[in-house]
Specification:
The structure holds 5 protein chains of 5 kinds. By secondary structure, chain A is α/β, with parallel strands linked by helices. Chain A has 11 helices and 8 strands. In chain A, strand 2, helix 3 and strand 3 form a beta-alpha-beta unit. In chain A, helix 3 packs parallel to helix 4. The longest helix of chain A is centred in the middle third of the chain and has 21 residues. By secondary structure, chain B is mainly beta. Classes of the chains: A alpha/beta, B mainly beta, C alpha/beta, D alpha/beta, E alpha/beta. Chains in contact: A-B, A-C, A-D, A-E, B-C, B-E, C-D, C-E, D-E. Chains C and D meet through helix 7, helix 9 and helix 11 of C and helix 7, helix 9 and helix 11 of D.
């Protein structure tokens, strides 16, 4: 565990920040049993369901827990929460943190099972996390297996104002822009929630367009490519036109891929516009106004000059959302944002942008 | 500026096009269903000859899945990168009003302002009953 | 074999779209333009390469050796020759492989309109299946509603390999529309090629592709039953077309056995899959993957424990049989009549409307 | 979870003392630590850190949750460890109880299909060592499978060579859902090495190709996954025939395990028809596919087909050939076949003997 | 063009193509999965006046491209499905025919042009044999692969090809495209050609990550790889991301003693087309600063519709040295063409 002494003279530029991507983990299968209805509780036990940890985030892989944040497994909710408070919330004085729970609900093939476990998970998050720490907010986990069910779950959970976003995995069964998924966007927009797309896969397809890789490292790497293809899909399928107030947050994507990707997309749009005539403005404009990215991992070298140039290439101070990606091992020490981000940009990224992106944060977050 | 004779009208039936040289510049002239239009024969993007492009329709849409095909919205689609330009105005269908002065020079040529980076230069065309005339 | 005077009903024959140009007049303006400006050559499927032997019987091919297009050839080779009462045209042009929903909608509409104009109007005995853009089930349902007004469309056609198993709820709007109009769902060999045609990857040879089609039917039958399509749509019938037939009973033995152990997972499957299949599934009888001996064929048909399941089909122009051997050897005259007349009439209610 | 075993041992079969070969018994690791002695430090760490990585998304468990815990008979759970991990219980409950004279161990986890092929090779080798130390050397009635990293033909060949000639091993084991059809050239080194070693190659259903388990996309339910397995086996057999594997490796014998058998005649008929129409495409396939199947493919009985007309099952067996069927129990799994009650009652004593042991004795050279 | 090539095949394969065609893990016989935006994906002005397919007429190519653009050195990369056919023997036969065709119809007639050894890399032994057959000829300057097959391109089954290329000193060109039969995105099948085109950049990234992470450059330190037609803007981001993963995954990547960026910096070249076009063109220069001006190669993609015109592809004031490197010298160095 980390040194608990927070009274020293550490630089603390992040007071009041909103951490937009914090991972919480279901300690073991049985943690959700109290939240399942009788039938699914029985199924879990009688069929011997295992934990639904996904291969996208092997718990023991170094990249998935910063060494000084790593807890002995299975880590109880209490231990995880305490670590979060000590290492982040209290230490830096964050005003809020948004929890994303990446449990393999979406990987199940049965729509009904996916739905029941998603419900249990959301109730578990509300009861065991949000009730115990007023600074926490959470994303609604949805059964992507069936967009209608997912929309129902959004409407059910959204009545709890502490849920501030809808959570999807970046790799589903079909590209996320397809009309198949539109009920999800409709519900999210109706509830005033951004859709957070997070690294992760339903594993209906290999994680790359070129087949199954040998190493976890490539699986992890490929998540960044997946965001690129999904952003293309969302734009070209016309999601942003059909849902004019919808915002999309890309979480744990890496950031540095964005500018060259947009250059390419704008260029192809010029030649292929007639294929998707509902895309009426350059894709980069759509992205700048409607898409946000969380800042860890950032995927740049430590050189502040590179970061500065990259921010210039992004061309907007409004696109980035502050995130620690706790407990994943994205950075060491206290450098929550890469060197090269100016104080003014920090203010945008850590506070103004999250508050603008998540309207519900304004309710009850300590200024 | 003066009008230049391009062709006899009967030599340019509807659907035809030809390239003429006016003051050292190549100009593509199109007869679109009896209306004549002239564009600088040079795509503002990477310089392809627009006269080799496809004269077609700019499809529009009110929502995804709807393709609104109005044959009066003629565009020339560049033979290389398929960028679309309104045959009347020369404006890029994608970004008609984009003038990004920060990184692109605008320039004045033959007394005519070229609007922003992606506008194909157009020329007035008229007919006098016998000939097609382009002003340049 | 003796079909004469029965007024037999050919439940699977294939009108061939000679080339994309034939559909262009039936396309909306935008897509007409796209065919031209994008240089789209056409959507013929690799499932039946034009010159592959299976794709057309040699004596049915046209003079250039291509699969025969146009109704005249079919009339001569099959309809008049065997004095058929009706024939159901299943057009297997590659609409089902298109990735853009909108393009699929446009093409499906065009094929259906082409079918009505070129085939149904040309011979009062012709009937056809509605091609649907399964890529978007709501719009597929719209297309069913649109075409069903023409009573000569007697079935809805789906490919055996699409993007997700056909039992998934995603596809239910299609079944709802079909049931509403009293139309069976015909599932035909062919893949959208979203996945390899075998569950273990892409084969080297076309012959494997063709052989693997029957695996697709196995998966789909499992899906339709396990997802509860027949519980939800109790009046729906599904016709498995060009499936090979002999795989059917052994597959159901296995499914029924597993069901006994795993019924609790799919509690809406409230009776043995074998029984459900017997009530809801029909199979066209060409090809029949069996040896040419009477005894084995008889045994396969016995194992159905029902004489109502097979539907007579020529599978024209595919090369499934030679000469006049369109009915598998080993059937009694009564069975032939069941298969060629009574079963089709029971399966396709709309055929009864015009039957004398 | 465990249910006490009442001694209902089948005295009559014990008295008969005829042979009975069970071609499909599943041993299980008590825990991953069982492999610790056989793995290098590097791979042991790797296993701890990254776990097994099949071509699916779950870190533990499988994409379709089983219908019962561990897919096992509820009475097969030992005092500790998973079903199949306790030799004493296996002896008492299975080998002794049913009078099994020889059983072939087919481990399913780890399998040879890990995404990291070097790791997969190490795991297979370790598992094979463990099979000898913990099982075959302890119990003479048991034989093991040579587990191979089948997605890497060369590495698989090495492992087969390493085990060739060891009497502990009965066959080479693959899982059925390979990432490409099994006849493809990448797998030929396996067939070559197995032929050299005189070992049959067996494929057991399961594994993760990375493609959907049906060729029409991902199904929803475990029952569908189970029902779909034979399709993969059918595709593998078709591929081996059309790629010319059986011509190229004339000594190769192929065994299909846990896929049932009812589908095999229909497959042979279909392939014959297709081959007759399209033999120009595969001129290297000299004979009708049914002949390769008849001569070179063996098939295990479990899960036994249960048809409404029992004679249909016997007839299907006759179509396959009485000399090609192998009894398998699938112990300790839930869809286990009991050797006494599993086979159709109408079989003659001779037919029964063929299935119970004669065919296996011939195939495995006992 | 196809006829030229098919006529070089044994009768057996000609019959085969006439009968079942060329199966390539997709469903259409003529159309591609995503119908192109332009007929055959070519420039509308690239159809030779004398007939034939774009890119099939050397004189016209000279007149339209080589001469006016002052192309001093052009590398031919024949595309098409030959390399990713399901039938591997046919693939091998076709690749051989294509290679012979390149010599006879192109490189022997036009000294400015050099060919690429098109390798049937699904059969590594055959590919190696083909490399050895042709490597000594001046006609060929690289071995050409496509980015998509059922297995990621770094997979060790392909290593014999890398060994052979390293041995004969030819770079490997990995062109975007091919067809592995998997959806082009990790999240399934997209709808539009635009998405397909965008995704090629992602498959190029996957291909490069695979080459690095599987240890190809560690194993074959003299191997050089040029990534073609995937654009180039994404490379810095990819390098940064891989380095970070490598730091965190040293035990999984124990076979990589050095950070990925070093292998990439030493062994990987990128072609420019379709070059990204940021609103502020200076940004592309900054990206190339990060990549290295010695590692970028101009490519036109002639005669395809997303062709980059050499006069317009780099609309920036560049130093003479950078301009020379980008347009000529880097390529001459990479492909081993002597120059002053």
């Amino acid at each position: 565990m980390n040194d608990l002494n927070v009274g020293g003279d550490r630089p603390r530029p992040y007071r009041g920040a909103v951490d937009c991507d914090v991972q919480i983990t279901v300690p073991h299968r049985d943690a959700l049993l109290p939240y399942l209805d009788e039938y699914w509780r029985d199924v879990s036990l009688q069929r011997g369901l295992q934990t639904l940890d996904t291969a996208a985030f092997p718990r023991q892989a170094p990249i998935n827990a910063r060494p000084d944040w790593r807890l002995p497994e299975p880590a109880s909710v209490r231990d995880q929460l305490r670590s979060l408070q000590v290492n982040l919330l209290d230490r830096y004085g964050f005003s809020a943190a948004i929890c994303n729970c990446l449990y393999g609900v979406q990987l199940l093939h049965s729509e009904d099972m996916g739905q029941s476990i998603a419900r249990a998970l959301n109730d578990w998050i509300a009861r065991e996390w949000l009730d115990n720490e007023p600074r926490l907010r959470a994303s609604i986990v949805v059964p992507m297996q069936n967009p209608t069910m997912a929309a129902e779950e959004i409407r059910r959970v959204a009545t709890d104002r502490r849920f501030v976003q809808v959570l999807m995995l970046v790799m589903g069964e079909m590209p996320l822009g397809k009309r198949y998924y539109w009920p999800i966007y409709e519900a999210a927009e109706e509830c005033g929630l951004p859709v957070g797309i997070h690294a992760g896969s339903m594993y209906r397809h290999p994680v790359t367009g070129t087949g199954w890789p040998s190493y976890y490292a490539q699986d992890y790497f490929s998540q960044a490519s997946a965001f690129q293809t999904q952003l293309t899909s969302l734009i070209l399928e016309g999601v942003f036109g059909a849902f004019p107030t919808l915002r999309v947050v890309l979480s744990e994507t890496g950031v540095s891929w964005l500018p060259p990707y947009l250059w390419r997309l704008d260029k192809y749009w010029h030649g292929l516009r007639s294929e998707t005539p509902w895309v009426k403005v350059p894709p980069s404009e759509i992205v700048r106004s409607r898409v946000r990215l969380t800042t860890q991992p950032f995927d740049t070298p430590a050189d502040p000059a590179v970061v500065e140039r990259l921010l210039d290439h992004i061309g907007s101070d409004e696109m980035l959302l502050f995130a620690s990606d706790f407990p994943h091992w994205r950075f060491d020490g206290d450098d929550l944002l890469p060197a090269g981000v100016s104080p003014d940009q920090i203010a945008h990224i850590s506070r103004a942008n999250p508050l603008a992106t998540y309207p519900r944060l304004a309710e009850g977050v300590v200024p | 500026m003066a009008y230049h004779v391009v062709a006899a009208i009967e030599d340019m039936p509807p659907g035809s096009r030809r390239v003429i040289e006016v003051n050292g510049r190549a100009v593509a002239v199109f007869n679109v269903e009896g209306e004549f239009y002239a564009l600088l024969n040079r795509c503002p993007h990477q310089g392809a000859d627009l006269c080799n492009g496809l004269l077609t329709v700019a499809v529009t849409s009110t929502e995804p899945g709807i393709y609104d095909f109005d044959p009066s919205r003629n565009v020339i689609r560049c033979p290389w990168h398929a960028w679309e330009f309104d045959v009347r105005t020369g404006k890029s269908w994608c970004e008609p009003n984009r003038v990004k002065v920060r990184s692109f020079k605008t320039e004045v040529r033959s007394g005519k302002l070229i609007e922003g980076p992606y506008v194909a230069e157009t020329f007035p065309v008229k007919t006098d009953g016998t000939y097609v005339l382009v002003e340049a | 074999m003796n079909l004469q005077n029965l007024g037999a009903i050919d439940c699977d024959m294939h009108p061939v779209v000679p080339e994309l140009k034939a559909l262009v007049p039936h396309l909306p303006a935008n897509w007409r333009e796209a065919v031209e400006s994008r240089g789209i050559p056409g959507f013929e499927s690799n499932a039946y390469p034009q010159r592959a032997p299976i794709t057309a019987r040699p004596d049915w091919r046209d003079d250039a050796g291509a699969p025969p297009a146009g109704i005249d050839r079919y009339r001569k080779a099959v309809m008049d020759r065997w004095q058929l009462g009706h024939a159901i045209g299943n057009c297997i042009y590659g609409v089902h492989m298109v990735l853009s929903e909108d393009m699929a909608v446009a093409l499906a509409t065009a094929v259906n309109d082409w079918m009505a104009a070129e085939w149904l109007d040309a011979d009062p005995r012709m009937r056809a299946s509605i091609i649907v853009p399964w890529q978007n089930p709501e719009r597929a349902a719209d297309e069913i509603d649109r075409c069903a007004a023409d009573r000569r469309f007697v079935q809805v056609l789906m490919p055996v390999m699409a993007e997700a198993p056909l039992g998934r709820r995603h596809y239910w709007p299609i079944y709802k529309a079909a049931e509403r109009h009293g139309l069976p769902i015909g599932i035909h060999a062919g893949s959208a090629y979203r996945f390899p045609v075998t569950p273990v990857g892409w084969p080297s040879y076309y012959v494997e592709d063709y052989a693997a089609q029957s695996l697709g039917f196995q998966g789909q039958l499992g899906s339709l039953i396990c997802e509860g399509v027949f519980s939800k749509f109790p009046n729906l019938k599904v016709v498995m077309i060009e499936s090979g037939v002999s795989w059917f009973t052994p597959f159901l033995w296995r499914l029924t056995k597993f069901w006994r152990g795993t019924r609790s997972e799919v509690p809406w499957v409230d009776r043995p899959p074998l029984e459900i299949a017997r009530d809801h599934i029909r199979l066209t009888a060409q090809p029949l993957d069996a040896p040419d001996d009477v005894e084995t064929v008889g045994r396969i048909i016995d194992q159905f424990q029902s004489d109502e399941m097979l539907l007579f089909a020529s599978d024209y122009p595919h090369w499934q049989f030679d000469n006049d051997e369109v009915v598998p050897a080993g059937l009694s005259a009564i069975s032939i009549e069941k298969m060629a007349v009574q079963n089709p009439l029971a399966t396709y209610p709309r055929l009864r409307e015009t039957r004398l | 979870m465990n249910i006490a075993l009442t001694d209902t041992a089948d005295k009559s079969s014990a008295r008969q003392a005829t042979a009975l070969v069970d071609c499909d018994i599943h041993p299980a690791l008590r825990s991953a630590a069982d492999l610790r002695p056989y793995l290098s430090l590097r791979w042991w760490d790797y296993l701890q850190t990254y776990g097994l990585r099949s071509r699916h998304g779950f870190a533990k468990g499988t994409p379709f949750p089983k219908i019962v815990p561990g897919a096992a008979r509820r009475d097969a759970w030992p005092e500790s460890g998973p079903p199949g991990s306790d030799l004493a219980l296996m002896r008492r409950q299975h080998l002794d109880h049913h009078g099994i004279t020889m059983g072939i161990l087919n481990p399913l986890s780890p399998s040879g299909g890990d995404q990291n092929s070097a790791f997969s090779a190490a795991l297979c080798s370790a598992t094979n060592d463990w099979l000898v130390d913990a099982w075959t050397s302890q119990e003479p009635r048991l034989k093991a499978s040579v587990l191979v990293p089948y997605e890497d033909g060369e590495a698989a060949r090495e492992e087969i060579r390493k085990r060739a000639g060891q009497p502990d091993f009965a066959h080479v084991l693959l899982l059925s859902r390979t990432s490409e059809p099994l006849g493809k050239r990448r797998y030929w080194p396996i067939f070559e090495a197995a032929s050299e070693a005189g070992l049959p190659v067996a494929t057991h259903v399961f594994g993760y190709s990375g493609f959907p388990s049906t060729n029409s996309g991902w199904p929803s339910y475990y029952i569908e996954e189970g029902a779909a397995h034979p399709a993969g086996c059918q595709a593998s057999i078709a591929s081996m025939i059309f790629e010319g594997v059986f011509d190229r490796y004339p000594d190769l014998r192929f065994v299909v395990i846990e896929a049932g058998f009812g589908w095999l005649p229909a497959l042979a008929w279909r392939l014959d028809r297709a081959w007759h129409r399209m033999r120009d495409e595969v001129p290297h396939v000299k004979r009708p596919p049914s002949e390769y199947i008849r001569e070179r493919v063996w098939i295990s009985t479990q899960p036994m087909e249960e048809a409404p007309q029992p004679q249909a099952v016997a007839q299907t067996m006759a179509d396959i050939g009485w000399d090609r069927l192998l009894f398998a129990s699938d112990y300790p799994h839930w869809d286990f076949d009991d050797p006494k009650f599993g086979l159709p009652p109408s079989l003659s004593a001779e037919q029964r003997d063929h299935i119970r042991f004669r065919n296996a004795h011939t195939l495995y050279g006992l | 063009m196809e006829k030229d090539i098919f006529s070089r095949l044994a009768p057996r394969w000609r019959t085969h193509i006439a009968t079942v065609g060329m199966l390539a893990r997709q469903g259409f016989t003529q159309e591609m999965q995503y119908p192109k935006g332009q007929p055959m994906a070519v420039r509308r002005d690239a159809f030779p006046p004398g007939g034939g397919m774009p890119g099939s007429d050397l004189d016209f190519m000279r007149a339209q491209h080589l001469d006016p653009n002052n192309v001093q050195f052009g590398v031919l990369i024949p595309l098409g499905a030959a390399q990713s056919l399901q039938n591997i023997d046919l693939s091998v036969a076709l690749c051989t025919a294509i290679n012979d065709w390149q010599v006879e119809e192109w490189t022997s007639r036009e000294p400015r042009l050099r060919g690429s050894i098109v390798a049937a890399y699904q059969d590594p032994q055959a590919a190696v044999a083909e490399i050895h057959r042709l490597a000594g000829k001046r006609d060929f300057v690289q071995v050409s692969l496509l980015s998509r097959l059922p297995n990621p391109i770094g997979h060790r089954s392909f290593w014999p090809i890398y060994a052979a290329a390293a041995e004969v000193g030819l770079p490997i060109g990995v062109h975007a495209f091919g067809n592995g039969g998997w959806a082009i995105t990790g999240g399934g099948w997209p709808s539009y050609y635009g998405e397909d085109m965008m995704s090629h950049a992602q498959t190029s990234q996957s291909a490069l990550a695979s080459l690095v992470l599987e240890g190809v450059f560690e194993r074959f330190p003299t191997l050089r790889v040029a990534l073609i037609e995937g654009g180039l803007g994404w490379l810095p981001s990819l390098r940064w991301r891989l380095d970070r993963i490598w730091e965190r995954s040293r035990d999984e990547l124990a076979h990589l003693p050095r950070p990925p960026s070093e292998y990439i910096r030493e062994s990987v070249w990128l072609t420019s087309q379709p070059i990204e076009e940021p609103a502020n063109r200076q940004h592309i220069a900054e990206v190339i600063d990060w990549i290295g001006w010695d590692r970028v190669l101009f490519a036109s993609d002639y005669p395809h519709w997303d062709f980059d015109d050499p006069q317009r592809a780099m609309p920036l004031p560049l130093s003479r040295e950078r301009r020379d490197r980008f347009f000529l010298k880097n390529a001459l160095d990479l492909y081993g063409i002597p120059h002053g």
